[in-house]
Amino acid sequence: MAVKQNNRNPFKGLQFTADIILWVVRWYLQFPISYRDLEHMLSDRGVKVDHTTLFRWIRAYAPELDKRVRPHLQMTNGSWRVDETYIRAKGQWIYLYGAVDARGQTIDFLLSPRRDAAAARRFFREALKQPHTVNPRTITVDKGAAYPIAAKAMKRDGELGRFAKFRQVKFLNNIVEQDHRRIKRLVLPGLGFKSFVSGSGTIAGYEAMAMMCKGHVASAPANDMMAQSDFVTALFSAAA
């Protein structure tokens, strides 16, 4: 597997082995499960880990997984499908922006405390910085007023191709809405997030795991959990 190794050992000094930690990370980020349920599952396998420790693992390794997966993503195409949804964090609603291409491959995502033109513009900017994305030919959104305002300003400032076609066609966005429904299923067992920071990091992990499950990484095909496990192990330079 052609995965560049990281010489820094992210598991140094921990009581538990890397294979246990990565198993927890993969399962929590892929399936709708609570920390307490995961604690019971590990106990059934003879591994005693408190659910608060599992929370700390996810907070540490979920965003790290996203960061390490990104260089291995295959290129997306220029047909963007963009949408946002809401998620609860510390009793407040926050907004998750997401975009996929016409094949359903992830372009980018962003958690924002606000839902406005500034947030939409920030999301577009971040998406365009990713090495696996291209300047879009078309951007399909819902009827939200913020997107046209953000796109117009970015075209004016040369941040977005001036010939990019902007469409507001709801049924074409079913593919990105499915991604948001998946995120909400994963969040549900935990009844929301304790803070914006923990929500942002965990969602980054959800999205990174989803990229692999959708076949966005050539060496970790969709529906091949063994290959995905090997790929994650290689990313973290850990011997399974």
UniProtKB/TrEMBL annotation:
Residue span(s) of domain Integrase catalytic: 67-187
Coiled-coil portions: none
One GO MF term attached to the UniProt entry: DNA binding
Keywords, comma-separated and alphabetical: DNA recombination, DNA-binding, Transposition
Pfam families assigned to the protein according to its UniProt record, in alphabetical order: DDE_Tnp_IS240
Keyword Kinase among UniProt keywords: no
The name this protein goes by in its record: IS6 family transposase
